[in-house]
Amino acid sequence: VSERRIYMLAKIRDQYLLALQYEDFRRLWTVNAFAGAAQWALIIARGWLAYEITGAALWVGLVTFAAMIPRLFTSPIVGFMADRFDRVTILRVGLTLNMLHNVALALMVMLDAIEGRLLILLFLALLNGTLASFRMNTTSALIPNMVPKERLLNGIALNQATQQGSRMVGALGILPLLAILDDNGIMAAFWLCSSFYAFALITAMRINIRSTGVIDREKGFLSNLVAGFVYVYGHPQILAMILIVLAHCALTMSYESLLPSISTEKLAAGSVGVSYLIGAVGAGALITAIFLAGVRNTTTRGILFLVFGFTSGLGPILLALTTHWELSILAAVAM
């Protein structure tokens, strides 16, 4: 029996966890896990803070939008910087600034200095989203430098699993704080996020690899950006994938700003309910990402890409229609 278990564990390792045998990738994976958990816990705590101050889902939507929109307009800039400068240095600087941002936010809440200053909260959300975009794009650029080509797909899938699973970790991490500490729960959540970023930074300092991309230094930012668009347009498969992802994010990601209202008004679960719902989204994404890490057939991956893109749109519909807690969790997992 023990030999069979060893065989099964080895099979799982060889199919799903191959990239983790490389030390720098393990460290990068850990950085992403803790920084991602901090990012998603912060989205919950910051959204709930806005909801407590105003009682309106509008401000929850605004601060969530401010944290998300930088991914759209900063990605080309980060990609350019990741090609021109050392990627690990960019990662470390971004983590440092995000940790300081979290400390500042925690201090403002602790000193009751955030009440009535929603524009500051909006600015901090925008700053946090910009720095998070720097981390995610730099991480994606670093993976090919840490994992050999034949195991690159596994490394990318594990990275995605970490980014998606961190929703669950972040949500469950602050759940006891919001449930037990009541009014002080949000402040404690911000301090926990700061500690997550601090651990991620310490781990990032241990990454040994140094890398930049290949770039035509005689051309400026706009020239290289246009060259990237031309490349995407000239490759229909890449263009189709990007358009599908853009449509998916534009049409389904708005649910995050509505979760405080859904949890409070429909489910009567308060801030704890928001954590459960975000955690359920992360759990579904984590299971799917780990499953995809073991899929090696290109055709199968393409079919699954379309299937999951369609089914993820059904989750928000179910969440909007149901008033039952169990079905709401199921809808969040589907998303």
UniProtKB/TrEMBL annotation:
It is found in: Cell membrane. InterPro entries: MFS_trans_sf, TM_effector. Gene3D superfamilies: MFS general substrate transporter like domains. The keyword Protein transport does not apply. Keywords: Cell membrane, Membrane, Transmembrane, Transmembrane helix, Transport. GO terms for cellular component: plasma membrane. The keyword Transport applies. The chain crosses the membrane at residues 56-78, 90-111, 118-136, 186-209, 221-247, 267-291, 303-325. It is a multi-pass membrane protein. This is Major facilitator superfamily (MFS) profile domain-containing protein. It comes from marine metagenome. The lineage of its organism: unclassified sequences, metagenomes, ecological metagenomes.
